[in-house]
Amino acid sequence: MTYSFLRLAAEALRGNAGWTPAWRDPEPKRQYDVLVVGGGGHGLATAYYLAREHGISNVAVLEKGWIGSGNAGRNTTIIRSNYLLPGNEAFYEHSMQLWEGLEQDLNYNAMVSQRGVLNLFSTDAARDAAARRGNGMRLHGVDAELLDAAQVRAMHPYLDFDNARFPIKGGLLQRRGGTARHDAVVWGFARAADRRGVDILQNCEVTGITISNGRVTGVDTTRGPIGANKVGLVVAGHSSRLAAMAGLRLPIESHVLQAFVSEAIKPLIDGVVTFGAEHLYISQSDKGGLVFGGDIDGYNSYAQRGNLPVVEAVMEACMAMLPMLGRLRVVRSWGGIMDMSMDGSPIIDRAPIDGLYLNTGWCYGGFKATPASGWCFAHTIAKDAPHRLNAAMRLDRFATGALIDERGAGPTPNKH
Fold first, then answer.
1. How many CA atoms, within 13 angstroms, populate the side-chain half-sphere of residue 154?
2. Residue 13 and residue 25: Cα distance in Å, rounded?
């Protein structure tokens, strides 16, 4: 079924009786060409691009819960490509370009809104760092503008400039950045993959990985064994657990990242703003609620909830940047399980075991990378070789020293 204005009008005239489910609910087959473990945005995008770009449609996506029940529905919806290092910038810019045409490609309203992303800075050193990042972006053909305090005030006059605990001296702006609706992105990729023949198997948890003669031949699941020529793991914070089923130990740690939504208010923040003095990012949803978050909780956990010290730190940063927020109530919060790599950059690569492929280590950058992650992982699985855009995101870079340390924090996942 193709969504269109004419279809919408026709269904309205006949009482909306002709709509069908967005995707099928099939029974598992005994054998697939490719199994993608993980029914979040990255996994579904991988399956979609395997079918669309490489003609591999005998694919199943295995999700232990329901589609989008993990990190895909537990983020702050920001999309951007304002990265510095060559190993990251071209990749995230490709993702940004895919975002710009995603709704037409998927025939689904993902609510992509390029409202701009502004990174504030409060010190001279931070201005120098922002200028360096902006120059790096422009060298890669990516839009970047370095704004002074007056230009920031013209864009966002409600920020605290005059009595600020941390004075705002300017910001680095990427106008093409913005937000997208996380649930709609997942649903759009699921529907588009299903239309190309991909089986989406919900409530199908992987309990074991089958290896024969040094090669992965399938998985055991709560819905029975399923054979496959290739298996790709795209399970975010649970990557270590599944990799251990194949005897692998990955250079990642699992941490909780909290996010918050305030009560709805009239339009206030028309873009995405990040605070320069503390780790805070904030935007306003179409419903009117302010969506914001900060640092990971800093301890290893698989719990989808956080702790009060981080809540306090995030609220303090909100008050320092926007004192008026003290009048608002936070109506809900949630936690996602981040797969924090040792250098803060992702891993998209073949595993040391034939037939097994890894997509992990997304840290804070998972949602914005969704289209390019699927694009590159599909290429890596189909061709048994990395795409040029993920060639630097190798697993062995932690052994060779070829790190992609975007933040310059070293091998400390809790600081990325």
1. 5
2. 28
Starting at the edge strand found earlier in the chain, the sheet holding 272-274 runs 145-148, 170-174, 117-121, 272-274, 281-284, 290-300, 252-262, 330-341
**3-class SS at 409?**
coil
DSSP letter at 113 equals B
Say how far apart CA 203 and CA 56 lie, in whole Å: 23
pLDDT (tens digit, 9 = 90+) per residue, 345-395? 999 999 999 999 999 999 998 999 999 999 999 999 999 999 999 999 999
Q: What's the per-residue H, E or C state across 180-195?
A: CCHHHHHHHHHHHHHH
Tell me how far apart the alpha carbons of residues 404 and 87 are, in angstroms, rounded to a whole number: 6
Measuring CA to CA, which residue among 77, 75, 78 is closest to residue 334?
75
Q: Are 71 and 368 in contact (CB under 8 A)?
A: no
The b/e string for 325-341 (b: 16+ C-beta within 10 A; e otherwise) is beeeebeebbbbbbbbb
Give the chain's domains with CATH numbers: 28-81+84-107+182-251+343-415 (3.50.50.60)
pLDDT per position as a tens digit, 179-214 = 999 999 999 999 999 999 999 999 999 999 999 999
Tokens 């399923």 belong to residue: 226
Residue-wise over 164-199: b if at least 16 C-beta within 10 A, else e? eebebbbbbbbebbbbbbbbbbbbbbbbbbbbbebb
**What's the predicted TM-score (pTM) here?**
0.96
